[in-house]
Amino acid sequence: MVRGESTVGEGVRDGALTLVSGVNVRDLPIGPTEAFVLSRVEGSITKAELVTASGLSAEELETIVARLILLGALEFVERQSMVAPVAASAHRSGAHSILLSDRSESVSELTAEQQQLLLDLDRRSTSLDHYQLLGIEPSADAKTLRAAYYELVRIYHPDRYFGRKLGELEGPLVRAFGKFSEAYEVLHRPESRAEYDRYLGALRRTVDFDRYLHDARRPSTVPASNPPASHPPAVSAPASHSPVASASAGVATPNPPESFGTPSVPPQRDARASENPRQASSVPPQDSDARRRALARKLGHSSLPPSSSSSQSVPAVSDAVRAAEELRRRYDQRMAHVREDQIKHYVALSSEAAGHNDLVGAANLLRIACSLAPDNLELAGDLADLEQRMTASLWESYLDRAKYAAAEGNYAEAAESYERAALGQPNASLFERAAHYTLEANGDLHKASKLAKQAVALAPNSAKCRLTLARVYFAASLHESALAELERARAIEPNQPILKEWIERVKRGE
């Protein structure tokens, strides 16, 4: 049968269904209704004709056909008399667009554009929602959804490339098609789509707070738009070789020069210099008095020059030290004023953001203020209050996220979302669920224990909370503690079968 080209919508509306050759119906995981639908397919048949032949409603048939296409039992073909070939490519708005190949030729390989799209989707699939995966808008109707999915099935169903050497594309092809199918299964049913939309809404409401909590683990920095004032220039004290003056200036005492203006004598001339009195002055004296006498002889003075540690140089050095200390004091004072102004600036911006109900922005600004004044307990308290306001306003959104993640088997996300919901609305049930899913996700047992203990503290007469704590103890190989908690739980609910099972399991050490 010759295939012509079509747009995305036309391929579904005008296409006919046919059995995929080589498929054994008995090997498919299908029920009697689906098998009956397959038995009505002879040659090629449209969905409208299949509705008449099967007696099923159009909606029921739509679901069955989608599953049979997913299982590789049915595929769409087009009746030549019904479709006029066109030379155009179909494009959709959304997360991606698909370049259609020429359907007048047999499709043997993915085009270069399709290969690139496949690899891109495989790399980004965890960050894309179901709408983005299918390349449609969240407002898309059921018809648009089906058209997008069937076109992806036509191009990316792994069975179309059975026996072909796909190389590195084989894994991404299987994973991507699984993601497409999962997205369609969720979105094509009104109930599951509404639930998924609630989850996306909760995700959007909490994403900023998630980012804030992530950034809060890193040290805050003041934005570069408010750089600190430059350091004051260094002040040099008058040159002096006096150990006293050097120590007063707070700098290391430099090594004394070998002579005042005369070159030093190489080591090999030391012996001759010691024999010749006239050359003795060129040898560096070993103490300050000897240096002064040598200098006096060289200058023709009969008296010694004044010592460098005389009182005449001390006042000059002391004045320089006092000037440097005063400059440093003024600099520190100016920097303290700058820091204080910055703190007030960020606190004012934080208050303004909070007034507009931008709690995340307000918390970020206040966190910068706290980094400038780490010892300010009042600011730290204000930040803690603001964070509590955020968690209290978002706990229901986190609860929606937690429930959806748990239903989807994403236990790590469920545990984290339950924990954040509990922080905003502390109650035993939320803490218990956070501990439970931390355990299910093979997470941190220390955290799971802490969460379970919080649940028990809030509801000491809850057998469920004590069972979860016992399970955490058991996972940590603390069998005696686990058994003690189970006995307490059984005292609360003596007829609970699961408690008896766990007690026996702990005693056996399984």
Task: Note down, in words, how this protein is organized.
With 510 residues, the protein is mainly α. It has 3 domains: 8-194, Orthogonal Bundle (Helix Hairpins); 321-424, Serine Threonine Protein Phosphatase 5, Tetratricopeptide repeat; 426-510, Serine Threonine Protein Phosphatase 5, Tetratricopeptide repeat (Alpha Horseshoe). The chain is 60% helix and 2% strand. It has 21 helices and 3 strands. It has helices spanning 8-13, 32-39, 47-54, 58-70, 112-124, 130-134, 142-156, 170-187, 190-216, 243-249, 270-275, 288-299, 314-355, 359-372, 377-407, 411-424, 428-440, 445-458, 463-475, 479-492, 497-508; strands at residues 15-19, 44-45, 74-78. It has a 3-stranded antiparallel beta sheet with strand order 2-1-3. It is extended. It starts with 7 loop residues before the first helix and ends with a helix. Mean pLDDT is 74; it is low at 1-14, 79-108 and 224-283.
What would CATH call the homologous superfamily of the largest domain?
Answer: DnaJ domain
Output the number of helix runs: 21
Task: Tell me the CATH architecture of the largest domain.
Answer: Orthogonal Bundle
Query: Could you tell me the number of beta strands?
Result: 3
The order of strands across the largest sheet is: 2-1-3
What's the number of structural domains?
Answer: 3
**Mean pLDDT reading:** 74
CATH class category of the largest domain: Mainly Alpha
The share of residues in helices is 55-70%
Q: Low-confidence stretches at least 5 residues in length (pLDDT < 50)?
A: 1-14, 79-108, 224-283
Structural class: mainly alpha
Distance between the termini: 62 Å
Radius of gyration: 41 Å
CATH topology of the largest domain: Helix Hairpins
| Biggest sheet layout | 3 strands, antiparallel
